[in-house]
Design brief:
The chain has 450 residues and is an alpha/beta fold. The chain has helices spanning 5-11, 25-33, 47-57, 104-115, 140-154, 164-174, 188-198, 208-221, 236-251, 273-282, 295-308, 341-353, 370-375, 381-390, 412-419, 433-439, and strands spanning 63-66, 73-76, 93-99, 118-121, 124-127, 130-134, 158-161, 180-182, 202-205, 227-230, 263-265, 287-290, 321-325, 334-338, 358-363, 401-404, 422-425. It has three domains: 5-57, Orthogonal Bundle (3-methyladenine DNA Glycosylase II, Chain A, domain 3); 63-308, TIM Barrel (Alpha-Beta Barrel), CATH 3.20.20; 321-445, 3-Layer(aba) Sandwich (Rossmann fold). Strand 4 (118-121) and strand 5 form a beta hairpin. The chain starts with a helix and ends in an 11-residue tail after the last helix. The mean pLDDT is 91.
């Protein structure tokens, strides 16, 4: 369990020397208990206290690194059970499998398909993270060559799913790329020794919590330090239960014996792999291995992951300003909305669908949606009038007509009063913009005579 402020205070020197920057040792202990100070700030703490408090302050869910450089994948290193408590830091990693026994042409085609699993959504690139190489041939040399080819072709970190012999050969070939070693349960000890010798991460697979505890102990005794726990569930329900148990043991119980990132192999005939993946992205699956390379399967999963792992305190947003759509002229419509990324891209797409050149005015609302920004006082008649006066839009068009989102129609009078622009209330839903814009006549945007 996490140490309380009183537990920490008992380990401190109790001199109230203030050298830590706090008025008393108790105040310092309270800050440490809240995770806002570390024992290193205390110059008089004993070695025993530093060891005990340093261990207690380490992340409840250890960090495991796979790969290196720009494509490095981080598993674990989470501190909360629920996203609203703080945020989730490291998205569930998705690995797509490829078999080492495929003919050369089929292997190359599969690798190319994996490379293509990258998409752009709301201005961000979302993609799969790793390649999982399954050893089916049993040929150590072939497996090592295929591992090298997969890494060279994709640049993605590897998950090496293989028995001890092929695993060792592949580690020799691509060990510098820091792959995740994933031996079968019967080769766990040999795989752990290999991971320890090469300082590589290791997936430990065993059935349920009862099997994981001794298996993880075996891996630690063999010297492996960077571990990922795979409870080998047989269905989606078991997978979610196991992932939740592992996270609760880490965050709430601080159980160092079982507190590891989780991995789930949803291939090789696992039932309902898409359902299981969707549930595990939402419920603590750190690494998911899937056999499908179909974009229709993966885009929804990556979109779900992007939504869940966006910091709720810092929404995805675009820069405020004027965004031309098509080739707008001086009589083109002017629309306004907030700088929440999803709002921007949705409105932009619907305006483009109207095939009407327009100017889209984006307000700085701290990344909030229209109604949220209005409720928070960020999207008001005053702020919109000020933006119309300062952004330079008056130099881009000859008219003074603004299309306002229908959800905030009540702002129209105040905007007209402050800015002297005429306000047209647009539809409440962005999806109605194409038909709305097509219905507008040129007279709506006639040059201003004011």
């Amino acid at each position: 369990m996490a140490l309380t402020a009183l537990d920490i205070y008992k380990l401190l020197p109790k001199t109230n020397c203030k050298e830590c920057g706090f008025p008393t040792c108790l105040a310092f202990a309270m800050r440490m208990a809240a995770g806002k100070a570390t024992v290193d700030l205390c110059p008089h703490a004993s070695g025993e206290a530093k060891a005990t408090l340093g261990a207690a302050a380490s992340p409840p869910l250890p960090k495991v690194l796979i790969g290196a450089g720009e494509r490095e994948v981080v598993l674990g290193d989470e501190t909360v059970l629920f996203r609203h408590e703080k945020t989730f830091c490291h998205p569930s990693a998705v690995a797509i499998s490829v078999r080492d026994d495929l003919p050369d042409a089929d292997f190359a085609a599969r690798i190319e398909a994996i490379r293509g699993l990258a998409f752009e959504r709301v201005g961000q690139r979302i993609s799969v993270d790793l390649v999982a190489l399954r050893c089916v041939s049993g040929d150590a040399g072939k497996y090592a060559r295929r591992a090298g080819a997969a890494f060279e072709a994709t640049g993605l970190p590897l998950v090496l799913l293989a028995p001890a012999g092929p695993l060792a050969a592949a580690a020799d070939a691509v060990g510098a790329s820091r792959p995740l070693l994933s031996p079968p349960p019967e080769d766990l000890e040999a795989g752990a020794r290999l991971a320890a010798a090469r300082k590589l991460p290791l997936r430990v697979r065993a059935r349920g919590m009862g099997g994981l505890a001794p298996a993880l102990a075996t891996a630690r005794e063999a010297g492996a330090a960077s571990l990922v726990a795979d409870p080998a569930p047989e269905c989606a329900r078991e997978a979610v239960a196991d992932a939740t148990t592992l996270r609760r043991l880490a965050i709430l119980a601080r159980n160092r014996d079982l507190a590891y990132p989780s991995a789930f192999d949803l291939g090789n005939g696992f039932p309902d792999p898409f359902l299981a993946a969707a549930l595990l992205i939402a419920k603590y699956g750190s690494l998911l291995v899937m056999d499908t390379a179909d974009p229709a399967d993966l885009l929804p999963l990556l979109t779900l992951r992007q939504n869940l792992f966006t910091d709720p305190q810092r929404p995805i947003q675009v820069e405020p300003g004027i965004y031309p759509i098509g080739a707008p002229g001086e009589s083109s419509p002017v629309l306004i909305t907030t700088n929440f990324s999803l709002t921007y891209f949705t409105v932009r797409g619907d305006v483009e669908a109207a095939r009407t050149p327009a100017l889209l005015l984006i307000s700085d609302c701290d990344g909030m949606s229209v109604l949220t920004a209005w409720a928070a006082g960020k999207f008001t008649g005053e702020s919109i009038a000020r933006q119309l006066a300062e952004c330079g839009i008056a130099d881009r068009v000859a008219h003074r007509t603004l299309i306002l989102p229908g959800m905030v129609a009540r702002l129209s009078g105040r905007i007209e009063e402050l800015s002297k622009w005429r306000v047209l209330v647009g539809p409440q839903e962005s999806s109605a913009l194409p038909s709305y814009l097509r219905r507008l006549t040129a007279a709506a945007f006639a040059p201003s005579r004011g």
